[in-house]
Amino acid sequence: MANVPLYGVKTHAQKVCSLYKRALRNLEAYYDRRNVYRYQAVLLRDRFDKNAKITDMRKAVELLKEGEDELFKTQHPIPKLFPTSQGGVAHQRVVTPPDWVIDYWHPLEKAHFPEYFKRREQRKKEFIAMWEKEYGTADKKEEKH
Amino acid sequence: MNNMKYSICFISFFFLFMMMMVNFFFMIYFIMNDMVILMEWEIMSFNSLSIVMSILLDWMSLLFMMFVFLISSVVIYYSKSYMQSELNLSRFIILVLLFVFSMMLLIISPNIISILLGWDGLGLVSYCLVIYYQNLKSYNAGMLTALSNRVGDVFILIVISWMLNYGSWNYIFYLEFMNNDWEMMMIGSMIIMAAMTKSAQIPFSSWLPAAMAAPTPVSALVHSSTLVTAGVYLLIRFNMMLLDMFFLKLLLLLSGLTMFMAGISANYEFDLKKIIALSTLSQLGLMMSILSMGLPDLAFFHLLTHAMFKALLFMCAGIIIHMMNDIQDIRFMGGISLYIPLTSLCMNISNMALCGIPFLAGFYSKDLILELVSFSNLNLMIFFLYYLSTGLTMFYSFRLMMYLMVNDFNLLSIFNLYDEDYIMLKSMFVLLFMSIISGSFLSWMIFSYPYMIYLPFNLKMMVIYVSLVGGMLGYFISNMKIYSVNKFLMTYNLSNFLCLMWFMPNLSTYGLSYYFLNLGQSLLKNIDMGWSEIYSGFGMMQVMKKYSVFYNVYQMNNFMIYLFSFIIWMFILFMMLMFNN
Amino acid sequence: MGQMMGSYDARKVDLYMDDKPTFDPQAGFNYQRKPREMVAREEDLVSAKIPVKYRDYCAHHLLEYQSCRYKNMPLLYKCAHEKHAYLICEKDDYVIRMKEFERERRLRLREKRIVGVA
Predict the structure, then answer these.
(1) ipTM value of the model?
(2) Which stretches make up the Complex 1 LYR protein domain (chain A) (predicted)?
């Protein structure tokens, strides 16, 4: 799954699994009590399982397209999202500053944490050494444009 | 700042609470003696123009100020615990205080310039508060809020310029006497439009559910009691002038429709704060419509009692959201009344007050409104809108109660459910006490001249019939069993229409701005970054570079250039001599 | 639509909400009818600054209610008796006005019948 050469190319099995997961989430939006949802989810799984063993690719692709259409036509206008997921209420509320911001601190502020910054400089040197071991040293020509 | 003995929250809570007590005593004194104080500072006056800065203190302003101080003090104390993980809490509290002071300026001003100061201040500060969590949803919501409020500001600016025609900006003096002028009618219609934008009536109602992206204390203060009631308050002040106008009938229709639409949409909504926002919208429609029937003191009464229990409802919702780690979707919640009894007590009482259960706060205002509506002569459709909306209020309140409290627990673990946050609880208990007492207290205080209502038995009981039917429907719709088919799926197209507020937010956001934004983008890409780069930006620089290289040749003191130009000049002279004959 | 359906009977005889009675007040009664008179005095009403639209035949109860309010402020629930008396008087006044309207309507109908026969 991770060694996809091109971005966006999916196998048929991946597409079916994605459709199944999205359909389950859609069902969760309609049937919010857990026991009721479980019953409806089993029914949905049965619908998927009935067509699971088809080897004729034309029919399988057509069924997949019909499934996508049905999901689109019955999607819930207010899907049940977790708050920090994309489209949820608390998405991107808390921002973690990137790591390189610490390098821009004033030296007086850096003096509050002497050991950390010593270790940080050591870590930077080790990182550069690791990079150069794997990819070779940087070209002198590329330093200035 | 880190080693202060009392936090800024406690100091502002104390200050606002003391102001509230002072206002309470003054209000009682003013009602008792039927006193009005108008203080004026003259800025400029010549011929027949007089520009003054004035402050009007009558019982209505003092009462409203008392309520606003109470709610804001309680909300600031509440946000001490709600926003404790916030690094810049001082910034938040200062924004809320700025909001409260703008509202005060709006309440005590009898002239339209200081109303504009307060009005614009409210709009601006509410924008800053809505975008407080700076994510994409908040930015969109803030833009929607600010632009809708801005439309109202434009109307008030037009009113200001038009009112100068009458010689001063103190509208208080013109209300009864200038009723029949055409200009006054136009001014009145502008004021109605401005109030409609602020109080989110039908053409401008998309910002109120969207503004729930703000933090919950902001919603409790701003979107339940103060910002959205500024429009209603403005119309209450102007009511003498508006009484026989056509636009008032239009307002009656639009606000009745708002009431109805918000009630229906709240039934399909699953976000806790959006349900409460739509409930606020419905009650605002009720206030506006009773105002447009010529009963301003009833609108004022409902405004005050509604502020109490709506702020309480938002604060309870805030505690629930806090406990569920920011989840606002009621499909994740259930059965919490077993674990947080005090919060669910406050939630229950405020919901019952909202529905108009007898003898709580909402009953006095809502029941009186509905009885007076039945007593007057009305269109059948408006009558149905009122009663159906009351039934719908009961419907969505019952549904909310079922989802939150009665059904089984739906989230993963009950570890977070924690009812001992005494700061938030103490602030809620103040509002709880007021939400029970204030209905009865105000109904004695405000109505010096009581309303007589003489109705047949069934018409008087209509409220109760409609509420019972609504309650039963609310129970049935949230009772989900294994064998039940989801009613949303069965009526998919209709439910989509009713759920998304009749697609009006789409009309007033995409519909209005899609063409102009597209136009803006094509202007940017084609003209700003395209042709005008060639003709005046980058292209001009290239031209100048090329030709300055060319012209450099002349400045290099090349002898051949001089000889060549000498020959050319001789040639020209020769041609001129030749052709002059 | 409610006021269209409910006022059909009155509009049929050309009678509208604000019309005054046009027939003789004594016609059809076997006892002597007295015109209604104000109990509260004009100067009392003026000095209490009661708005003009509340100076009707029940204003004496209103004056009592206002003075009770002033005495008992802020414990206004103690004025319940005076408020109830005022509202009862207003209700009686409403019923009297309703009956006058109905009487006017029936007399006009009767006149139409009589003129139609003649």
Answers:
(1) 0.90
(2) 14-71
